[in-house]
Design goal:
By secondary structure, the protein is α/β, with parallel strands linked by helices. It is 25% helix and 29% strand.
C-alpha cells in the first residue's frame, strides 16, 4: 500500500503516482501532496496539513495513520481530501525549518524573502491548495475546511489548543462545535493578519480554518498519542462524514483573545519570560514581558498569559503572543 510519509521522506521520483481502491481515487500532486476523492458525490472539501515545521512529529504521524486507514479501505472517505506534508526538506533534517519559518510566508509573503527551499515550498502549497479547492468546488463541494496540525516548542498548561486566524466573517458554528468535540483545552483568537497557512486558507478561500497544537515537539516514535485521541477521532469523523464525537473531558474549552503580538524588531530585543515557563503562564498587570530600543512590552490587562515565547526568531517576526481570557 502507498505510504505517504515513507514516499515523501525518500524524496526523488515517485513510481506509483496514482491509484484507486474500491471506493476512492488517489493522486500524488507533488512532493508530500496527496489528493483523495471518493467516488460518491460530496459537498465538503477538507485540507489537513502537518509538518509545516519539520520537527513537529505527532501531527505527521497522525496524518499518515489516517491516510493509511483511508487507502487500506479500513475507513470510509466521504469528503474530497487533500493531505499535505508541509516541509519535507525540514522533516528530513528534523528541524523546524531549513532556512526560514515557512509559517510566516503564506499569502504571498514568500516573495519578500531571498528565495530558498521554504519560499518555493510555500508557493507550491498555495498553488496546490488553490487547485484543490477550485476543482472541489467545481465538483460540488461547497464547504471548505483546513486544519493545520502543529506542536509547540515548549510544554503548555493547556496541552491541546487551537488558533483561529483573524477573519471578518462570523466564525463557523460547525467548526466551533467540532473543535470542542475534539476535546481542545483552549482556543486562541488572533487579532491581526499573519503569514500562517490557516490565515491564507481562511482569507483567500473562505475555508473554516484552524491551527491545531498537539502537545510539545518530540522525536519520531517518542510521542504519547493517547493525549490526542479526541483530535484523532475528530479528524476521523470529519473525513468519514460521521456524527461529531462526544467531548471526553468535563471541562469547557477556554477562549483567549490575542491582546499583544510581541514582535522582535531590533537586535537588542530581550524577552523576560523565563526559559522554562510553560505556554499560558500568567503575568500580572504592569509586568515587563519584553524590551528593545524604542519599545517596551508590558502587561496591560489585569492578567495576560504568554504563548509561544521565543526570543530567537528572525527580525520582524513574532517572538510571542500575550492573551487574555474572553
Ligand atoms: O511553540 C512555538 O513557539 C510555535 C509552535 C507553532 O509552530 N505554532 C504555530 C502557530 C500558528 C498560528 O498562529 O496559527 C506557528 O508559530 O507557526
Ligand atoms: Zn509548528
Amino acid at each position: 500500500m502507498f505510504d505517504l510519509l515513507a514516499v515523501t521522506m525518500a524524496g526523488g521520483p515517485v513510481t506509483e503516482p496514482a491509484g484507486q481502491t474500491e471506493t476512492l481515487d488517489w493522486q500524488w500532486r507533488g512532493e508530500g501532496i496527496l489528493e483523495l476523492s471518493p467516488r460518491v458525490p460530496c459537498d465538503t472539501a477538507v485540507v489537513i496539513s502537518a509538518g509545516i515545521h519539520g520537527n513537529e512529529t505527532v501531527p505527521i504521524e497522525l496524518l499518515n495513520q489516517l491516510t493509511g486507514e483511508l487507502l487500506s479501505g479500513a475507513r470510509a472517505l466521504r469528503v474530497r481530501l487533500l493531505m499535505l506534508l508541509g516541509n519535507p526538506a525540514s522533516m528530513r533534517l528534523n528541524k523546524r525549518f531549513a532556512d526560514a519559518d515557512m509559517n510566516r510566508m503564506f499569502g504571498g509573503r514568500h516573495a519578500r524573502y531571498t528565495p530558498n527551499d521554504e519560499t518555493r515550498r510555500a508557493q507550491e502549497l498555495e498553488q496546490a491548495m488553490a487547485l484543490f479547492y477550485r476543482s472541489a468546488t467545481a465538483a460540488g463541494a461547497l464547504h471548505r475546511f483546513h486544519y493545520d496540525l502543529h506542536t509547540a516548542i515548549r510544554g503548555s498548561l493547556h496541552v491541546r489548543f487551537g488558533l483561529l486566524p483573524l477573519q471578518t466573517r462570523p466564525k463557523s458554528e460547525a467548526m466551533l462545535a467540532w473543535l470542542s468535540a475534539c476535546g481542545l483545552d483552549a482556543l486562541v483568537h488572533h487579532r491581526s493578519p499573519g503569514g500562517t497557512f490557516t490565515h491564507f486558507s481562511s482569507e483567500v478561500f473562505q475555508a473554516d480554518s484552524c491551527t491545531l497544537e498537539l502537545g510539545k515537539a518530540l522525536p519520531f516514535g517518542s510521542n504519547d498519542h493517547s493525549q490526542f485521541t479526541g483530535i484523532r477521532r475528530g479528524l476521523e469523523t470529519l473525513v468519514s462524514g460521521e456524527p461529531l464525537p462526544a467531548r471526553e473531558t468535563g471541562k469547557p474549552m477556554l477562549h483567549f483573545r490575542v491582546v499583544q503580538d510581541v514582535i522582535r524588531s531590533q537586535e537588542d530585543f530581550h524577552l523576560f519570560v523565563p526559559a522554562d515557563a510553560l505556554n499560558f503562564t500568567p503575568f500580572k498587570k504592569g509586568e515587563v514581558i519584553a524590551k528593545e530600543t524604542g519599545k517596551t512590552y508590558r502587561v496591560a490587562e489585569e492578567e495576560e498569559v504568554v504563548l509561544f515565547p521565543n526570543p530567537n526568531v528572525a527580525l520582524g517576526l513574532r517572538a510571542g503572543l500575550m492573551l487574555a481570557k474572553m
